[in-house]
């Protein structure tokens, strides 16, 4: 394959991370929906209800702020989880990635938009400008 050729991508239905085409998926690329077995299990388990709550909380927090304001995923986790919010940090980041995949939000670090699939460390979420 030539280096100039780009591989097709799609977003994971659960966490929003980018899935890049692989040779082993050549025959079943249209059916690939999840980036990992963990996401596949989460889509069928109790996590699906929590994910919907996190999505709704993130949308509410963004709507309540100025158009240029940002939200920290920990605020979303606290809104849904109360005192047990720490376990919801990664699912809150996944909710932000899903909003990015839907074109509703951007993830920033240091005020600059970053790729949500590769962002490490503290992030902020804002509406698309």
Walk me through this protein's architecture:
With 129 residues, the protein is an alpha+beta fold. It folds into 2 domains: 9-41, no CATH class; 46-127, Arc Repressor Mutant, subunit A, CATH 1.10.10.10. It is built from 4 helices and 6 strands. The strands form 2 sheets. The chain has a 4-stranded antiparallel β-sheet. Strands 1-2 form a two-stranded antiparallel ribbon.
Which structural class fits the helix and strand makeup? alpha+beta
Please, what is the CATH homologous superfamily of the largest domain? Winged helix-like DNA-binding domain superfamily/Winged helix DNA-binding domain
How many beta-strand elements? Answer: 6
Low-confidence stretches: none
Alpha carbon gap, first and last residue: 37 Å
Count of separate structural domains: 2
Order of helices and strands: EEHHEHHEEE
Radius of gyration: 16 Å
- For the record, the CATH class of the largest domain is Mainly Alpha
- Write down the CATH topology of the largest domain: Arc Repressor Mutant, subunit A
Which sheet architecture does the biggest sheet show? 4 strands, antiparallel
Instruction: Please give the share of residues in helix.
Output: 25-40%
Major sheet: arrangement of strands = 3-6-4-5
The backbone outline, from C-alpha atoms, is globular
